[in-house]
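User: I'm putting together a teaching handout on how multi-component assemblies are represented. Below are the sequence lines for each component of a complex, exactly as they appear in our records. Could you produce the 3D structure of the whole assembly as structure tokens, so the students can see both representations side by side? Please keep the chain order the same as the input.
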Amino acid sequence: MSALLDPGTPLATYYAQTRPRIGEVLSRRSLGTLDAVMIGRYAMTIGATDPSHYDSEAARSAGYRDVVAPPNMLAAITEWGIGTPEAVLGPDGTPEDGDMPLGDGELGLRVMGAGEEMELVNPFTAGTELVLETTLEAVTPKQTRSGPCIFVTTLNTFAAKDGTVLNRNRRTVALRNPLQES
Amino acid sequence: MSINFEVSDTLEPLKHTATALQLFRYSAVTWNPHRIHFDEPYAREEGHHGLALHSHMRAALALRCVTEGLGAQWRVTKFAYRLRRPVYAPAELAYTARVTATEGDTMTLELTEQHPSGEAGFEGTVWVSNTTEGATK
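Assistant: Of course. Below is the structure of the complete assembly, with chains in the same order as your input.
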């Protein structure tokens, strides 16, 4: 138990449940692939101007096999494949069975992205079959200006089917207790 | 390959207006169902002051400042960032990148997102390499 967390609070329950899992491989799964349209849509949404994100010819001229994803696209995708049925999503809309352990939905923890570190080993190009392995790296309680928080870090390793590593992403989210009913 | 940048050089700032429409499209394209990004009454119930920008979207904008400021011959090899405060749409944002180190064909830059309050909303570091010769793509 951490002295920073009040016993009996949802954060304390989460900490007791999740801390023993540090080091655990949470999932290893095939993600399928992203095609040129999905890459182009992502690039368009962020306003990217590099034609290598939109046009195969331009990408090949720049030395890529095909249309190349913007640097953080793989890390940004929340759900791969068809996603989670609405009835199974948590009250905040997040999938309860995502790669980031966010605790039992009944805990009602509030979640915010807190930071990320990514190593871009090789670029991702359209059509590459992906495998993702997720490991729980850290579960750290901290006192912040807005009250107690738990920072949770996962290591997501994106690799091509042949084992070539594309990205190693360490993602951290901050979990907070639910707001008190007034 | 020589590097034409020196420590303390600053890239052209990327100015961007983040809108609710952009947040919707970002949620859709990343298949992100988190309600704080598209359901404003819910976001306020959670204590936010409006629709919250996705951390990954802010990171993507910061990276654009670097990739578009440096040009296609530079490739991002590593990137780390920390969010200092949330940003709510609509928001006028400015991303800046300043060179902090150069070594051979590699360079490190410090990234900052100027928050509408005038404070830094996001701080990061990006490592890039020049791929003009012997590029591994």
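A couple of points students might notice: Chain B has three helices and seven strands. Chain B has one domain: 14-130.
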